[in-house]
From TrEMBL:
HAMAP family: NadE_glutamine_dep. It comes from the Bacteria. L-glutamine binds at S190, K196. This is Glutamine-dependent NAD(+) synthetase. Keywords: ATP-binding, Ligase, NAD, Nucleotide-binding. Belongs to the NAD synthetase family. In the C-terminal section; belongs to the NAD synthetase family. The gene is nadE. GO terms for cellular component: cytoplasm. Deamido-NAD(+) binds at N461, E490, K619. GO terms for biological process: NAD+ biosynthetic process. The active site is at E44 (proton acceptor), K111 (for glutaminase activity), C163 (nucleophile). It catalyses: deamido-NAD(+) + L-glutamine + ATP + H2O = L-glutamate + AMP + diphosphate + NAD(+) + H(+).
Length: 668
């Protein structure tokens, strides 16, 4: 047997945090070395951070990244290590993986396929490297191979697929397989999305099987730059069999996953495969000889275990809870904020936001230990005197209920119960007198009293806007981060007051729809995440019909009466925005999905959606940053672009109504 111990390291990096990024990389290298791994794969662009945006174009950033690489290189003795950084070749910038071996840089491999869809903008900064091209770069008077390379260490051949390279049909691994590569390393920066882990797992397993090789995959971890969340996937497979999977969505700053692979076994699979066709003569894949001797090691049984939550039937709820909690924890410590402030209305959205803040601290304490959690938040003075996680939550999380004459005891009681259950500070502000002052100013300007019959929207909005200054004041006094609480369904139709309930520096739930949020809150009430259990106090939220409480109580205002049923709204949004269907196509689809609704009513709701979507793009442009959770995101800065001014689908809506008329005549 020819055995090799390999490792995949995930690291929680921050763009341009040179010392912190270096230290986490060094920590991962040391841990892999202590575990006696010979080959270590670290993530894509882990030296700079993946989310540097236009800072990648800075010559100083490129120089500093190379300096950090040179600082790290001596610490790789007795190992073969990959590290990602931006590098130029002949004045052009590339997304590159540096190869280090036994304390020396031995070569550089640029990425061949760039991610330019969705939240990725790699082609803005980098160029794709041509297949098969080999060149060299000079650093401090020394030449290094640079290009589409395969490395030989001892008698093992090692190739690379860099993130997107593995997601395309013509994968570099397929060419590498034809010259007998034994190990493929995949340094990645693949953002979290619901269900994406299963896709990655499939291409890792299929790559190891089809390429007759061992495959090592390492992703970034955590909320790196503010919007994208990385789940820290680490996988090691051989011959179509998974050997090791690291924990996902961890609160640790780095983790190392190891496995022992058998080169003779994968070579045997290759030898007996009728489908394998070697291409030793025709292949243009250059080999870089690396003076490195793989040590003899003893066999070690594979222990492939998944965390209990990974096999839950409620996986989406678990992933949502853990991804957003990790993102909030990272945002808090990386922004050096003094805590969180949430305007807790007694409704679903603000309750979900506050609950996730509390869970972020509970989950971090459970995984890191309470002492380590306190150390990671040492910039918050109020945390120092906390002796329990409950006291720590109270020190950093302020929930504010802001009452007007249209607020009810039901929502006040619900808000108080939730705040107490999650151990947050609860504040009850009365802002009705301030609302009165503003309405008096408006009446004076118009020369008449303001009435609900004439001034409905203005009277609703001034209440929401009046609540913003007081929570901003509290956030400023605390040095805390004010969280806005709009969900994706509201963003789609502009059902939010700008400079009111949209006020905040971060909107944690803007990437998720209202229907799922309500399901999640019900799940949190009765079940909750594995290891943490339910929050029964949420019953006070879940029994209510969602309402903005901005009209007088006797009006019976509800969100769905103002808009449409949320499950329908979300279905229309997916059809119209995610799938780019016309109003008529959306109408036909909704007829099949929602037969309980009248044709005319369905068409009216679809018209309402398209009109509200078109006129409210300016609102989406002004939303606070949110977390990316799936391919239904509406964030115009990273995912879903739409003109602020447009024709508003007038022609298309007319076509839909003509079809409704003809359908009605046909039924008659």
């Amino acid at each position: 047997m020819k055995l090799v111990k390999v490792a995949a390291a995930v690291v929680n990096q921050t763009p341009l945090d040179w010392q912190g990024n270096r230290d986490r990389i060094l920590g991962a290298i040391e841990e892999a070395n202590l575990s006696e791994a010979s080959i270590l794969c670290l993530p894509e662009l882990c030296i700079t951070g993946y989310g540097c945006e236009d800072a990648f174009l800075s010559a100083d950033v490129q120089r500093t990244a190379l300096m950090v690489l040179q600082e790290i290189a001596p610490q790789t003795r007795d190992m073969f290590v990959t590290l990602g950084l931006p590098m130029t070749y002949r004045g052009v910038l590339f997304n590159v993986v540096a190869i280090l071996s036994d304390g020396e840089i031995v070569g550089f491999v640029p990425k061949q396929n760039l991610a330019g869809d969705g939240i990725h903008y790699e082609p803005r900064w980098f160029k794709p490297w041509p297949v098969g091209l080999r060149a060299s770069v000079e650093i401090d008077g020394r030449e290094y191979p640079f290009g589409d390379l395969v490395f030989r260490i001892d008698d093992a051949l090692i190739g690379l697929e860099i993130c997107e390279d593995a997601w395309v049909a013509d994968r570099p691994g397929s060419r590498q397989a034809r010259i007998g590569v034994d190990i493929i390393l995949n340094p990645s920066a693949s953002h979290f999305a619901f269900g994406k882990h299963e896709i990655r797992q499939r291409f890792v397993l299929e790559g190891s099987r089809a390429f007759h090789a061992s495959y090592v995959y390492a992703n970034l971890l955590g909320n790196e730059a503010g919007r994208a969340i990385y789940d820290g996937d680490a996988m090691i497979a051989t011959g179509g069999r998974m050997l090791a999977v690291g924990p996902r969505l961890s609160f640790h700053s780095y983790l190392v996953t190891t496995a022992v692979i058998d080169l003779d076994l994968t070579r045997m699979y290759r030898a007996r495969s009728d489908a394998y066709r070697p291409d030793y003569q025709g292949s243009q894949q250059p080999l870089v000889q690396v003076p490195f001797v793989l040590p003899d090691i003893e066999p070690s049984p594979a222990r492939y275990e998944r965390a209990p939550w990974e096999t839950s039937r409620d996986l989406k709820q678990e992933e949502f809870t853990r991804a957003v909690s990790l993102a909030l924890y990272d945002y808090l410590r990386k922004s050096h904020s003094g805590g969180f402030v949430v305007s807790l209305s007694g409704g679903a959205d603000s309750a979900a936001t506050a609950l996730l803040c509390s869970l972020a601290m509970r989950m971090a304490a459970e995984e890191l230990g309470f002492g380590a959690l306190k150390d990671s938040l040492s910039h918050i003075s109020a945390v120092k005197n906390s002796s329990t996680v409950e006291q720590l939550i109270a020190a950093i999380l302020d929930c504010v209920y802001q009452a007007t004459r249209n607020s009810g005891e039901t929502t006040l009681s619900a808000a108080r119960q939730v705040a107490e259950a999650i151990h947050a500070k609860f504040h009850h502000f009365h802002v009705d007198k301030i609302v009165e002052l503003y309405t008096e100013l408006g009446a004076k300007a118009l020369g008449r009293p303001l009435t609900w019959e004439q001034d409905d929207i203005a009277l609703q909005n001034i209440q929401a806007r009046t609540r913003a200054p007081s929570v901003w004041l509290l956030a400023n006094l605390r040095g805390s981060l004010l969280l806005s609480t709009s969900n994706r369904s509201e963003a789609a139709v502009g059902y939010a007051t700008m400079d009111g309930d949209t006020s905040g520096g971060l909107c944690p739930i803007a990437g998720i729809d209202k229907a799922f949020l309500r399901q999640w809150l019900s799940w949190m009430e009765t079940t909750g995440p594995s290891g943490f259990g339910p929050t029964p106090a949420l019953n006070a939220i879940n029994v209510q019909a969602p309402t903005a409480e901005l009209r007088p109580q006797e009006s019976g205002q509800t969100d769905e009466a103002d808009l449409m049923p949320y499950d329908l709204l979300d279905a229309i949004e997916r059809a119209a925005i995610r799938d780019k269907r016309s109003p008529l196509e959306s109408y036909r689809q909704m007829l099949a999905l929602f037969p309980q609704y009248d044709d005319q009513q369905l068409a009216a709701w679809i018209e309402r959606f398209f009109k509200l979507w078109s006129r409210n793009q300016w609102k989406r442009e002004r939303y606070a940053p949110s977390f990316h959770l799936d391919d239904e995101n509406l964030d115009p800065k990273t995912w879903c672009r739409f003109p602020i001014l447009s024709g508003g689908f007038r022609r298309e809506l007319a076509e839909m109504w003509e079809a409704v008329r003809q359908d009605g005549e046909g039924k008659g």
